[in-house]
Amino acid sequence: MKKTTTLFRMMFAIAALSIMFIACEKKISVTGVALDKSSAVMYVGDNLTLWATVLPNSATNKTINWSSSNISIAEVNKGTTENQGVVSAKSLGETVITVTTRDGSHSATCDVIVTMPPAGHGCSSDVPGFGPSLGVVNFVTDSVWVVGDQIWSDAVQATVCRQIKVH
């Protein structure tokens, strides 16, 4: 009988210590998240990697989710690591890329503008939204010319691309 009582007391002591150890294990909550960029300009067909930092560094649950406010302009997918978001520019316009923590729903954003390739960038039917070159335009002016999102003045040479509506 004494052996059983001693064994019972030992098992009780081990169980009590285990419960105390588990109770002492402390969860560290997320207090915020930050992105390495708050804005970016991209060209159709380009990719951009955003990096998220979950705060504090010692947080227990660093799981994050990526989203785009307009996936027809640019979409975002998880990169090769949990804290990478790869943005793919799909068509002209503006969108907001958001990273949100699972713990606490903290978020950070990056405003993305997708625009035409710059003059001299060339045209490519491989780039969604642009067809073959329509030629090169040369002109001299004393005025400022605005073509799309580009501002030109003085003597310029520009490659004129035929824009294709992508469905």
Strand content: over 45%
- Order of strands, main sheet, comes to 1-3-6-5
Structural class: mainly beta
Helix content: 10-25%
CATH topology of the largest domain: Immunoglobulin-like
Poorly predicted regions are: 124-141, 154-160, 162-167
| Mean pLDDT across residues | 76
- How many individual helices? 1
Number of strands: 10
CATH class of the largest domain: Mainly Beta
How are helices and strands ordered from N to C?
Answer: HEEEEEEEEEE
Keywords:
single chain; 167 residues; mainly beta; Immunoglobulin-like; four-stranded mixed beta sheet; 1 helix; 10 strands; 14% helix; disordered C terminus
Could you write a compact summary of the structure shown?
The chain has 167 residues and is mainly β.
List strands and helices in order, with pairings.
Elements: H1 2-24, E1 32-35, E2 39-43, E3 47-55, E4 64-68, E5 74-78, E6 84-89, E7 93-101, E8 107-115, E9 130-147, E10 150-163
Parallel strand pairs: 2-8
Antiparallel strand pairs: 1-3, 3-6, 4-7, 5-6, 7-8, 9-10
